[in-house]
């Protein structure tokens, strides 16, 4: 019975460590907003400002390397379970978590750039209707939005010196998130060759891109429940360990120090990974459709 209590305490400690890491890394937006609303307007001492800046730098480094937060959790499990297997699992989990975080960051960057293309179209339309030349309007819009990244120099040079603006826009459209620039290039080509109104074409293009973005957001909202189900399924083994510890079964000792437990641990880990991959693939297929 004592072993079950100790295992229950260990599971509680691991859960607390995970929740604390999550709160420290993810839930900082509300704190920043509250600080901006209630603290930034108050005079603060230089020492307090230095401490806050140092804390912000530390939190920034932690957020940049969030995958390493797996190691404290597996270290606690390894110490309480008196086994090196959790450390090996943590060594495997770090690159996987890093890859997942990088993929999420790339997705957010693509969404930001897609929104920037819509803003670029609107800015060009505004400059054109204000009486500017197309090249000057594009140059001002590119500088104002700043969404093209490395391709900004080529597009700006083409717009400033009368180069192949549609070709530069098509080249920039190859970067992730900038697909809408291909439509801007097409509108530019039609306006240059056929005399059609560039402002009207870009206005219609911006409307189409906004409608597509709204559809993606609606689809993402509809799939939020499915992703929540995937997360719950991922946490079920942890809940099972906690339930086993509450019943006095001492699951860590059984899983890490017995042959049957090791077989169950390997089989369960493979099934867990396969289930998460399958569920994630189903949801991603829905997003792609």
From TrEMBL:
<feature type="transmembrane region" description="Helical">
    <location>
        <begin position="254"/>
        <end position="279"/>
    </location>
</feature>
<feature type="transmembrane region" description="Helical">
    <location>
        <begin position="223"/>
        <end position="248"/>
    </location>
</feature>
<keyword id="KW-1133">Transmembrane helix</keyword>
<protein>
    <submittedName>
        <fullName>Tight adherence protein B</fullName>
    </submittedName>
</protein>
<keyword id="KW-0472">Membrane</keyword>
<dbReference type="Pfam" id="PF00482">
    <property type="entry name" value="T2SSF"/>
</dbReference>
<dbReference type="GO" id="GO:0005886">
    <property type="term" value="C:plasma membrane"/>
</dbReference>
<keyword id="KW-0812">Transmembrane</keyword>
<dbReference type="InterPro" id="IPR018076">
    <property type="entry name" value="T2SS_GspF_dom"/>
</dbReference>
<feature type="transmembrane region" description="Helical">
    <location>
        <begin position="6"/>
        <end position="25"/>
    </location>
</feature>
<feature type="domain" description="Type II secretion system protein GspF">
    <location>
        <begin position="125"/>
        <end position="242"/>
    </location>
</feature>
<keyword id="KW-1003">Cell membrane</keyword>
